[in-house]
Automatic annotation (TrEMBL):
This is UPF0145 protein KSE_62230. Belongs to the UPF0145 family. InterPro entries: UPF0145_dom_sf, UPF0145_YbjQ-like. Signal peptide: none annotated. Coiled coil: none annotated. Pfam families: YbjQ_1.
Length: 123
């Protein structure tokens, strides 16, 4: 189970905010659109992982240290997205996306963004 959490991620079900990549949520209606929200983080590269990645790239294969770092980074960006949504009174993020870019050759910038909204079950 540990490897599942190390190399994958997603939303914490206890977070109180539903995050979806779709425009709507089946069985729910959008009561109010709050607007764009995002969670941003920039992570520098660890010198040990850079050396390990350099050696691994000579032999081929997955760079597990870098994969774990990127998963942690995406999860942190997602947590910040959820915090922003809650702070604005939302209980859902629609059309969530990630944007990943290099940040001035010193790290990786990860931004989770979407549309904050208030949704409620139909019926």
């Amino acid at each position: 189970m540990s490897e599942l959490n190390d190399f994958g991620g997603g939303q914490d079900p206890a977070g109180g905010v539903l995050v979806v990549t779709t425009n709507d949520v089946p069985g729910h209606r959008v009561v109010r659109v709050i607007g764009e929200v995002f969670g941003l983080t920039v992570r520098s590269r660890h010198i040990g992982s850079q050396i390990g990645a350099g050696l691994k790239s000579l032999m081929g294969g997955e760079l597990k240290g870098l994969t774990k770092t990127l998963v942690e980074t995406r999860n942190q960006a997602m947590e910040r997205l959820v915090e922003q949504t809650k702070a604005r009174g939302g209980n859902a993020v629609l059309m969530m996306r990630f944007d990943v870019t290099e940040a001035a050759d010193v790290g990786t910038e990860v931004c989770a963004y979407g549309t904050a909204a208030v949704i409620e079950p139909i019926g």
